[in-house]
């Protein structure tokens, strides 16, 4: 009886993984066909890798951040990414304006609260952005905990002092209070809507040695959600797994962080159906 139960559990896990592989491939294929325009108001460090990640996946990036362009440009986008990594008082009004336009037009937007717990200015800005109801919030464990608690804490800049698993309850709380899908990047990438929790298990540790890879996956999440905005939870998990899978493939060719960055982008561009179906690994924790 125990052996049969174990076999049933394995069958369910395999079926669930295969389903996620299929839906992940469908979204990636649609992304390549539709090439959605993704507006990124992001930090100065991440612009290059975010743009190249979006291009490799099949999307069209636009690094448009002037508040003077928001009324004319943002309505033409399919999604908006707001990343506060190199936040200044001059950029915050444009971030709010773009989020406001996205909301008015029913377009998804994604918030990356980089280093939110590092300063009062940064925390206040992110809390104000949360009030504008992002479709998805993506951060590391420390960022999600700080944002959920609305408080400053021990900080290491944009690096996390917590495992992603440490922040699951904080993420669920944040999702319930904000209405956003919340994603936590780490050794396992967790995604929650406040009730459901899934984990994307793809990726390699060396991705943490490349600056702005977290910012880049936030952009990829926006592109996946742009393709399927009514299923933002599933789109977010798929994006995280696909990006991690590209990292796994790239790591097989890389000699270190610099070459991994190159092979990561190449591998994302070259992902095929068989690889995605076989190697995407997303499991349920709820």
* Beta strands, count: 9
Q: Report the helical percentage.
A: 40-55%
For the termini, the CA-CA separation is: 25 Å
Strand line-up of the largest beta sheet: 2-1-3-4-5-6-7-8-9
Number of helices: 11
Instruction: Spell the H/E element sequence.
Output: HEHEHEHEHEHHEEEHHHHE
The largest sheet is: 9 strands, mixed
Strand residue content: 5-15%
Indicate the mean pLDDT: 91
**Class by SSE composition:** alpha/beta
Supply Rg: 18 Å
Identify the overall geometry.
Answer: globular
Low-confidence stretches: 1-15
Write the SSE topology:
Elements: H1 2-34, E1 37-41, H2 47-57, E2 60-62, H3 70-73, E3 79-83, H4 92-104, E4 109-112, H5 120-130, E5 136-140, H6 141-149, H7 168-178, E6 181-185, E7 189-192, E8 197-200, H8 213-227, H9 232-251, H10 257-270, H11 273-279, E9 282-284
Parallel strand pairs: 1-2, 1-3, 3-4, 4-5, 5-6
Antiparallel strand pairs: 6-7, 7-8, 8-9
Helix pairs in contact: 1-9, 1-11, 2-8, 2-10, 6-7, 8-9, 9-10
């Amino acid at each position: 009886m125990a052996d049969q139960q174990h076999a049933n559990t394995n069958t369910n896990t395999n079926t669930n993984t295969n389903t996620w592989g299929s839906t992940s491939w469908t979204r990636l294929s649609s992304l390549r066909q539709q090439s959605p325009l993704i507006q990124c108001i992001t930090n100065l460090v991440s612009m290059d890798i975010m743009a190249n990640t979006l291009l490799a996946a099949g999307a069209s990036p636009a690094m448009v951040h002037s508040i003077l362009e928001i009324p004319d440009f943002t309505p033409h986008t399919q999604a908006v990414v707001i990343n506060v990594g190199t936040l200044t008082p001059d950029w915050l009004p444009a971030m709010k304006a773009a989020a406001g336009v996205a909301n008015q037009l029913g377009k998804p937007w994604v918030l990356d609260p980089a280093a939110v717990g590092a300063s009062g200015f940064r925390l206040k800005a992110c809390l104000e952005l949360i009030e504008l109801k992002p479709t998805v919030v993506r951060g590391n464990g420390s960022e999600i905990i700080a944002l959920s608690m609305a408080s400053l804490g021990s900080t290491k800049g944009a690096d996390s002092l917590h495992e992603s698993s440490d922040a699951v309850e904080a993420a669920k709380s944040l999702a319930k209070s904000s209405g956003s899908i919340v994603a936590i990047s780490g050794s396992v990438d967790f995604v929650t809507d406040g009730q459901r929790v899934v984990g994307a298990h793809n990726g390699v540790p060396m991705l943490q040695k490349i600056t702005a890879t977290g910012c880049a996956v936030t952009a990829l999440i926006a592109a996946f959600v742009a393709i399927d905005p009514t299923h933002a939870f599933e789109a977010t998990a798929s994006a995280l797994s696909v990006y991690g899978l590209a990292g796994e493939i790239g790591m097989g060719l890389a000699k270190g962080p610099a070459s991994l960055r190159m092979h990561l982008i190449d591998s994302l561009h070259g992902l095929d159906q068989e690889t995605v179906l076989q190697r995407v690994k997303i499991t349920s924790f709820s």
